[in-house]
């Protein structure tokens, strides 16, 4: 035991613990109401979720990740089934079917499905029987990721589904597939994106693939001033919140954008928690947060380097990319670099499912790290 | 486990991946720096624009007092019941908040017994335009409603009593021409308004002293920085600057004299000006009919305005300074003084003053008085005597003296709408291409014709005759107190100069004026007061179409004769004659002044020739007992 404690990645653990503490503090602040009292209930629940997350983290870290290698198809199947089920018996919120409801607790299966996809892809690509140099493997990997992608997109959660794209690409890259098809695909993707943007710019009314809602978000991103009171509101208010924070911020519980309700109260503790931190603690705080995430991502990649086997390496790298994608998209959205997508910030945003799935994923990395070669 | 071939390549690929991700985070970090540090002010500014509202609080207007400290223009608190809408806000459509407000209005109405004045449309308008400000439900509530609200209304949410100041003129109908009035100000400078989200206007002076001294009286506006939430409700007050009070004015006006003048004028239409001949202080200035300036605050209804402005009696006209009238016989003392400047012998010249007088081909019918000298002629107001005197000295000296004595131009008293009147001097004759005939000279001799004067000009002339030739600008403001100061700074008296009248001429003219009142056959005996020795002159001027009997009736007077403390001009429009119409009115005023002087111990018995405490001359009753001890460098001619 003392040996495994010695091998434990304390650096990553401290970064995680620090983020959890900061999360609870700023969810309290985001929930803070005028008149000087906050219910504290959001923070309390987030603390419970954080503790549950820590439990999952410890349990998964203690478990040998290699045991999962043999059951990865079952995990993948379970993920797909939950995604299908949520489409039919899930809770409908504003037309989106993303949640199961179990006696007051809502669970978002897409978060688990994404982790399941990472695990499956890592296990399958890590299998010596899979020849990564063959085009078939390349295509199959996209099919493996494509099924959950389409199911999640069908929940009208395109933003969340999109995260699968960098994951599958970088896992293939990491697994050592030839560069040519990968680069071709990246080139085609970038070209398609450009076509889409140009199309939306000039013919915003006739776009075959996107719903009005998605189209609006992209249009808002393309033009800041379009409809600042409608779809552009959150983006504008989030930018104002972050920008007015300055170097050291307005002080804890003094973020007026949040208190006065300009940053909508429904999103302040969840998707826009980073705005709250940035406004109240300024560049100092937002950079610290970015540093902690960098630490976590770097330690994931470190685990990939020192992993005992390819499965472990791809698992750690996949989790790293998963965390990175969420963090990058969320922060970029918060500061107006990317269109608004409903991607939460790992370990920070209020929400139980995502907390547990993120902690489980990080637990897997710890498990890989504990059982490393050297 | 079999080691895969490709495993050899993983290291550079992982390093590359990590590097890419670090680069992406670096981009975020740089963006954050630019957003939060480089462009902070832009976003801070935007944040303030959307969440801060500047509210201007009106300044507190200074007060105006009479010379004894009686407040003539005061600030009265107005208590209003206001509702802070953020305390009754409800989620959902605005109409739900309006429901909440209506419920509160009903509750307050039940408690106070007031009839609701605010309706749903009014509340919606307030929400649209002034949401962060309290909504005034009832304006100017009485003490009873206040007490009921304080006792029973403490659990009604969001309701508070809100105090504003408004102007009140306690002596209004008698002071309105002088003080003027205030109205709710428009935001005057465009720059100032732009700085405020909500501009609560103050009152600004629209007429009279309120207008002339508006920048001085007007206080300094305060302000309030209100933080609003995303719905526009007031969230809190970030800063508060208390408005400051403006300066106070102390007038030379003596309200007691002003009320006496009011009493003296009775129901007549006219004007009274009472000056202190020793310094030009305006002790009373009244124009009748008057109007209630309180009706102008905070604004006058268009109906009331129409009523006032179209009234044929012209209550808005300040007849004391803006009414131009022919002076009639009250001009004669000046004719006598002017004639004596050309020929000192004129004082003693005796002319026959018959009832028929021929000027060229024109025949004038008037009252006959036989052989009279100047003193006698003044006493009985002998027209023909002054025709002959004026023809002897020529019109130029009379016109020049009239101009020098302050006729034909504004006196500069601190009242607006003052008129200059008209002295038809050479310049005027040239400009209007009027030839000058002996008939014009005769008209001038008895204060008729082209001559036009205002009551204040005549009071000023009377004061100059009373004090021995010193010309003072009539002064209405005695002292002023700067904002924030405890003490008054005097507004110094303004001695314009000294008339170059000889002592003998003054003595003769003053003597004649004395006889007008004090001798049984004087024209002004109806004004005489038992025990008070004073001087005066009557005047009756025809105007309009000759023979229709439209007459302006005048009296000028100064009292006491040997120690003048009051110089008076009294005009009554459409009277009969100066002696019969104005005489009894002047008597009422003089009687009051006499009693006031007695009460205040200011009736000093004449003790020979000498200077009074005030440094002003005692002027003898006898024709030649007129000593000159005064130092005055500047002599006007």
Can you describe what's shown?
Chain A has helices spanning about 1-5, 10-30, 40-60, 65-70, 70-90, 110-125, 135-155, 160, 165-175, 180-200, 210-220, 235-245, 255-260, 275-305, 310-335, 350-370, and strands at about 90-95, 95-100, 105. The model of chain A has no long low-confidence stretch (mean pLDDT about 85). Chain A has one domain (about 1-370). In chain A, helix 5 (about 70-90) packs antiparallel against helix 6 (about 110-125), helix 6 (about 110-125) runs antiparallel to helix 15 and helix 12 crosses helix 14. With about 375 residues, chain A is mainly alpha-helical. In chain A, strand 1 (about 90-95) and strand 2 form a beta hairpin. Chain B has two domains: about 55-250, Penicillin-binding protein 2a (Domain 2) (Alpha-Beta Complex); about 255-635, DD-peptidase/beta-lactamase superfamily (Beta-lactamase, 3-Layer(aba) Sandwich). In chain B, strands 2, 3, 4, 5, 11, 19 and 20 form a seven-stranded mixed β-sheet that branches. In chain B, strands 13-12-24-23-22 form a five-stranded antiparallel β-sheet. In chain B, a hairpin with a 6-residue loop joins strand 12 (about 270-275) and strand 13. In chain B, helix 13 (about 330-340) runs parallel beside helix 15. The longest helix of chain B is centred in the first third of the chain and has 29 residues, at about 10-40. Classes of the chains: A mainly alpha (about 375), B alpha+beta (about 625). At the A-B interface, helix 9, helix 12, helix 13, helix 14 and helix 15 of A face helix 1 and helix 2 of B.
């Amino acid at each position: 035991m003392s040996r495994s404690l010695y091998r434990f990645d304390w650096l990553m653990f401290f970064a995680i613990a620090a983020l959890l503490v900061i999360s609870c503090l700023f969810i309290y602040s985001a929930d803070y109401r005028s008149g000087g009292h906050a219910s504290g209930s959001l923070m309390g629940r987030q603390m419970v979720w954080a503790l549950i997350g820590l439990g999952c983290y410890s349990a998964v870290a203690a478990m040998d990740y290699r045991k999962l290698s043999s059951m990865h198809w079952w995990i993948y199947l379970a993920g797909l089934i939950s995604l299908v089920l949520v489409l039919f018996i899930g809770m409908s919120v504003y037309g989106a079917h993303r949640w199961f409801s179990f006696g007051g607790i809502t669970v978002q299966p897409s978060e688990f499905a994404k982790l399941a996809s990472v695990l499956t892809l890592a296990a399958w690509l890590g299998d010596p029987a899979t020849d990564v140099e063959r085009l078939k493997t390349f295509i199959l990997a996209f099919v493996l990721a494509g099924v959950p992608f389409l199911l999640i997109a069908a929940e009208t959660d395109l933003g969340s589904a999109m995260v699968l794209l960098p994951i599958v690409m970088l896992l293939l890259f990491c697994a050592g597939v030839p560069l040519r098809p990968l680069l071709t695909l990246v080139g085609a993707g970038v070209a398609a994106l450009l076509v889409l943007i140009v199309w939306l710019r000039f013919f915003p009314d006739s776009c075959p693939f996107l719903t009005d809602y998605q189209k609006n978000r992209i249009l808002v991103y393309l033009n800041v001033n379009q409809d600042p009171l409608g779809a552009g509101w959150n983006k504008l208010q989030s930018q104002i919140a972050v920008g007015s924070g300055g170097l050291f911020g307005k002080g804890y519980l003094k973020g007026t954008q949040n208190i006065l309700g300009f940053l909508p109260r429904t999103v302040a503790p969840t998707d826009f928690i980073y705005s709250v931190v940035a406004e109240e603690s300024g560049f100092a705080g937002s950079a610290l947060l970015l540093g902690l995430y960098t630490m976590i991502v770097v330690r994931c990649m470190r685990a990939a380097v020192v992993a005992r086997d390819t499965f472990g390496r791809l698992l750690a790298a996949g989790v790293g990319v998963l965390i990175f994608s969420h963090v990058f998209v969320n922060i970029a959205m918060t500061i107006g670099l990317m269109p608004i997508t409903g991607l939460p910030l790992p370990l920070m945003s209020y929400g139980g499912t995502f907390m547990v799935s993120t902690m489980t994923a990080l637990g897997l990395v710890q498990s890989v790290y504990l059982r490393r070669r050297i | 486990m079999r080691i895969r071939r490709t495993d050899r390549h993983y290291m550079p690929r992982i390093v590359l991946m990590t590097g890419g991700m670090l680069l992406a985070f670096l981009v975020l970090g740089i963006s954050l720096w630019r957003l939060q540090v480089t462009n902070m002010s832009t976003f801070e500014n935007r944040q303030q624009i959307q969440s801060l509202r500047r509210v201007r609080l009106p300044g507190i207007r200074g007060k105006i007092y009479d010379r004894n400290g009686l407040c003539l223009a005061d600030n009265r608190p107005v208590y209003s019941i206001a509702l802070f809408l953020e305390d009754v806000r409800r989620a959902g459509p605005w109409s739900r908040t309006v429901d909440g407000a209506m419920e509160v209005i009903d509750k307050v109405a039940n408690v106070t017994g007031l009839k609701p004045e605010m309706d749903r449309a009014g509340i919606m308008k307030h929400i649209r335009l002034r949401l962060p400000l309290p909504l005034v439900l009832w304006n100017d509530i009485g003490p009873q409603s206040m007490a009921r609200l304080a006792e029973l209304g403490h659990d009604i949410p969001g309701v508070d009593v809100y105090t504003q100041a408004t102007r009140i003129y306690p002596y209004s109908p008698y002071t309105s021409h002088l003080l003027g009035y205030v109205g709710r100000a428009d935001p005057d400078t465009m720059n100032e308004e732009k700085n405020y989200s909500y501009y609560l206007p103050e009152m600004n002076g629209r007429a009279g002293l309120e207008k002339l001294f508006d920048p001085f009286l007007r206080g300094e506006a305060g302000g309030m920085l209100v933080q609003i939430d995303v719905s526009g409700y007031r969230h809190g007050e970030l800063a508060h600057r208390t408005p400051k009070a403006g300066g106070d004015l102390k007038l030379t006006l003596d309200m007691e004299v002003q009320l006496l003048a009011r009493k003296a004028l009775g129901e007549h239409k006219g004007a009274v000006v009472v000056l202190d001949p020793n310094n030009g202080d305006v002790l009373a200035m009244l124009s009748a009919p008057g109007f209630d300036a309180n009706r102008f605050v905070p604004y006058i209804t268009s109906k009331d305005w129409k009523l006032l402005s179209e009234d044929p009696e012209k209550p808005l006209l300040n007849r004391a300074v803006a009414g131009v009238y022919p002076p009639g016989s009250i001009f004669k003392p000046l004719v006598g003084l002017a004639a004596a400047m050309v020929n000192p012998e004129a004082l003693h010249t005796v002319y026959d003053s018959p009832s028929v007088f021929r000027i060229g081909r024109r025949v004038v019918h008037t009252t006959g008085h036989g052989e009279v000298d100047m003193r006698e002629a003044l006493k009985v107001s002998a027209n023909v005597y002054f025709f002959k005197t004026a023809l002897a000295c020529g019109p130029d000296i009379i016109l020049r003296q009239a101009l020098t004595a302050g006729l034909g131009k504004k006196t500069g008293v601190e009242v607006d709408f003052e008129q200059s009147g008209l002295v038809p001097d050479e310049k005027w004759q040239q400009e209007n291409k009027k030839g000058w005939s002996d008939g014009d000279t005769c008209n001038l001799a008895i204060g008729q014709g082209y001559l036009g004067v205002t009551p204040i000009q005549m009071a000023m002339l009377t004061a100059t005759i009373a004090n021995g030739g010193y010309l003072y600008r009539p002064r209405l403001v005695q002292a002023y107190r700067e904002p924030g100061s405890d003490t008054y700074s005097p507004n110094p008296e303004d001695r314009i100069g000294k008339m170059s009248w000889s002592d003998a001429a003054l003595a003769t003219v003053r003597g004649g004026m004395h006889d007008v009142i004090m001798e049984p056959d004087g024209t002004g005996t109806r004004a005489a007061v038992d025990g008070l020795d004073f001087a005066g002159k009557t005047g009756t001027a025809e105007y309009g179409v000759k023979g229709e009997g439209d007459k302006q009736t005048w009296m000028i007077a100064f009292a006491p004769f040997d120690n003048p403390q009051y110089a008076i001009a009294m005009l009554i429009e459409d009277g009969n004659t100066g002696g019969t119409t104005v005489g009894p009115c002047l008597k009422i005023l003089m009687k009051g002044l006499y009693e006031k002087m007695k009460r205040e111990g200011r009736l000093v018995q004449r003790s020979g020739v000498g200077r009074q405490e005030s440094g002003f001359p005692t002027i003898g009753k006898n024709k030649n007992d007129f000593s000159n001890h005064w130092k005055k460098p500047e002599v006007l001619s």
